[in-house]
Design brief:
Blueprint: H1 10-13, E1 18-20, E2 23-27, E3 37-41, H2 53-73, E4 77-83, E5 99-105
Antiparallel strand pairs: 1-2, 2-3, 3-5, 4-5
């Protein structure tokens, strides 16, 4: 039996928590923080760079909607990371385009300095002047 993409699986799509045109949102099954969401095109496509202009616009609108929903429901959320992994070398583990929306709370990490730069640990704690 052929493996089905986890984001194309009709059973997984039933778990969607939001939708906007060409994209939908799911809760991440391995969340970095509570409320971690994935924004995913309905169309199976490899990564962000293969998404259509419409899919990208719908993604941006859904991210803003989810941000507002999350912050209105949880006042401890004070920031967000938005992350996109494109290709195995960049850490993509599901080869269907998806964008991570990760709510951030004060104290959820010892030192958040550097944010997404932390994918390369020794690049995280830089200081700019």
């Amino acid at each position: 039996m052929k493996n089905i993409c986890p984001f194309c699986d009709p059973e997984r799509k039933k778990e969607k928590v939001g939708e906007n045109g060409a994209v939908f949102a799911l809760e991440d099954r391995f969340p970095v923080t509570p409320g971690h969401m994935l924004i995913i095109p309905h169309r199976h496509t490899a990564d962000y760079f293969t998404m259509t202009t419409q899919e990208i616009q719908d993604t941006e609108d859904l991210i803003r909607y989810l941000r507002d929903k999350i912050t209105s429901e949880d006042p401890t959320v004070l920031g967000f990371n938005i992350g996109i992994n494109c290709g195995e070398t960049a850490g993509q583990s599901v080869m269907h385009a998806h964008i991570h929306l990760i709510p951030r709370r004060k104290g959820d990490t010892e030192n958040p300095l550097g944010g997404v730069r932390g994918v390369i640990p020794w690049k995280r704690g830089y200081k700019h002047i």
